[in-house]
Amino acid sequence: MTRSASIDIPKLKDQARSYRREILETIHAAGSGHPGGSLSAVEILIALYGFQMKHDPQNPLWEDRDRLIVSKGHGSPGIYVALANAGYFPKEELKTFRKLGTRLQGHVHTKTPGIEFNTGSLGHGLSVANGIALGAKILNKSFKAYCLLGDGELQEGSVWEAAMTAAHFKLDHVCAIVDYNKVQENGLVEKIKNLEPLAEKWKSFGWEVREIDGHDFSALLKAFGDFGKVPHKPFVIIANTIKGKGISFMELNAGWHGKAPNKEQLVKALKELEG
Amino acid sequence: MIATRDGFGKELVELGKSNPNIVVVSADLEDATRAQLFQQAYPDRFFSVGISEQDMVGTAAGLSLLGFIPFINSFAVFLTNRAYDMLRMDVCYNNTNVKIICSHGGITVGPDGASAQCLEDFALMRVLPNIKVVCPVDEIEARKATRAFAQQKGPMYMRTSRAPFPILTKEADPFVIGKARVMREGKDVTIIGCGIMVSEALAAAGMLAKENIQARVVNMHTIKPLDEKMIIESAQQTGAIVTAEEHQIHGGLGGGVAEVVVRHCPVPMEIVGVNDTFGESGGPEELMALYHLKDKDIVAAVKKVIKLKK
Question: Is the Cβ pair B58, A164 closer than 8 Å?
Answer without folding.
Answer: no
